[in-house]
Specification:
This protein is an all-alpha fold. It has one domain. About 70% of the residues lie in helices and about 0% in strands. The protein contains 17 helices and no strands. About 5% of the residues have low confidence.
Length: about 425
């Protein structure tokens, strides 16, 4: 048994790396990977106990546990407690499991891949990668896999793959034939993911001025993600990306204003009439999608006024028909209200929203802010700046859509928050 546990202990981190890699590729397979990795980590923790200092402070752990408890209690208020409970176990279970493994196995420096003389001589790439701190490896895998996701999306545009849903009104947008979705569920979810990728690529590009090879790599990854984002035609996430880049110029690099404006002009030229039509529809007042979102907000606000303690985790879909002020087809299932803040408040109540914001803006964001300016190495500063920029993108994009309702995006949210805390821990050890 001890030999098996030792074997698992040496493999858990690589299982975590693989899990991070598949998050944007397939939801069910990711759930399987998260589950297997967690079970292995839990077994090791049971047999060997804690092997490293705790990453989170006691009050930070307390807030995370409190959010989990609020989620459990909220199930009592759901109109369908069985489905809400199942979804809570499936979704919140994955988030908790990923954080558990990440915070226990994500901050030590790993052993060299293929340990031994043969492994070291096999090639400099693996050896160089294995010498990096674990959080840097994890974000590296996250960004590397985005290349595949972006390329699939770009290929869909070139090949005219429309998918099962059109996601656009052909009468209002006659030049818009294809909205890409790549390996994710729909164009808006893909766009939210790409905003995260561009945020970190921007931060690392800015902090690798002396390493031209790495700087070029981040430029290529970011450019592919930006092109794929353009082809999602997701207006809310275009605005989120623009706000993120504006924040980058204001907070971290004033000289980037010119290049950012130039990149915007290039995007307009590449996108052509379809992009202009989408942008003009934002202020036209004639877009059914915008009107529908406003109706969702009104419905949700009314629901919040009636249910101060929330309608239960995953309970929005069961309450929405009672507040349907817009859709004539009552058979349409509305899973969320297209606003991350209103949706959390509607399902978990005012107290749930408060605890969620305390974790996001009270733990993760201040930690990232300190790293962004006081990180003891360039890569730590880049990780902090990446999270600050990602937060801007999430917050702005979350005003008009709730892509983090998707489990894959939720895993990305908690992954990046956990990595920020790991980097803060490592920052205490950097010289």
């Amino acid at each position: 048994m001890k030999q098996f546990v030792e074997y698992l202990d040496n493999k858990i981190y690589y299982m975590l790396l693989f899990t991070v890699a598949v998050i944007p590729l397939h939801q069910e397979f990711t759930a399987f990977c998260v589950g297997v990795t967690f079970l292995a980590a839990a077994l090791v923790a049971h047999v060997k106990g804690r092997q490293q200092p705790c990453v989170l402070k006691s009050w930070q752990q307390g807030l995370l546990y409190l959010l989990l408890v609020i989620g459990v209690v909220s199930l009592h208020f759901s109109k369908n407690q069985f489905i809400s409970s199942w979804n809570y176990v499936y979704v919140a279970g994955q988030y908790s499991a990923l954080l558990f493994v990440l915070l226990r196995h994500g901050w030590e420096r790993p052993q060299v891949f293929g340990a031994g003389p043969k492994g070291v001589a096999a090639g400099g790439l693996w050896q160089h990668f294995s010498a990096l701190p674990r959080p840097l490896q994890l974000i590296g895998v996250f960004l590397a896999m985005s290349v595949l996701v972006s390329l699939i999306g770009i290929a869909q545009k070139l090949l005219g793959v429309a998918g099962e849903g059109i996601w656009s009104d052909p009468d209002q947008f006659p030049d818009l034939k294809v909205r890409v979705f790549s390996t994710l569920v729909n164009p808006n979810i893909l766009a939210g993911y790409l905003v995260l990728v561009i945020s970190y690529c921007t931060a690392f590009f800015n902090m690798t001025k002396e390493q031209k090879l790495w700087r070029g790599a981040f430029a290529v990854v970011g450019a592919l993600a930006a092109l794929c984002l353009l082809y999602t035609y997701s207006r809310g996430n275009w605005l989120a990306c623009a706000a993120m880049l504006l924040a980058f110029c204001v907070l971290f690099c004033h000289k980037a204003v010119g290049p950012v404006l130039a990149a915007g002009a290039i995007a307009l030229a590449v996108g052509g009439p379809a992009v202009l039509q989408r942008l003009s529809s934002i202020t036209s007042g004639e877009d059914p999608s915008a009107a529908l979102r406003i109706a969702y907000f009104e419905s949700t606000t009314s629901g919040i006024e009636d249910f101060h303690l929330g309608v239960g985790w995953y309970g929005y879909r069961f309450v929405y028909p009672d507040y349907n002020f817009y859709l004539e087809d009552t058979s349409v299932i509305m899973y969320h209200c297209h606003n991350i803040f209103l949706n959390v408040c509607a399902e978990l109540g005012y107290h749930g929203l408060l605890v969620f914001l305390l974790i996001w803006w009270g733990i993760f964001l201040p930690t990232a802010w300190r790293l962004a300016y006081a990180g003891r190495s360039l890569w730590l500063k880049a990780m902090g700046r990446g999270y600050v920029l990602a937060t801007v993108g999430i917050a702005v994009g979350g005003l008009t859509d709730h892509v983090y309702f998707n489990t894959q995006m939720g895993l990305c949210f908690w992954l990046l928050g956990g990595l920020t805390m790991l980097c803060s821990k490592l920052n205490n050890y950097e010289t």
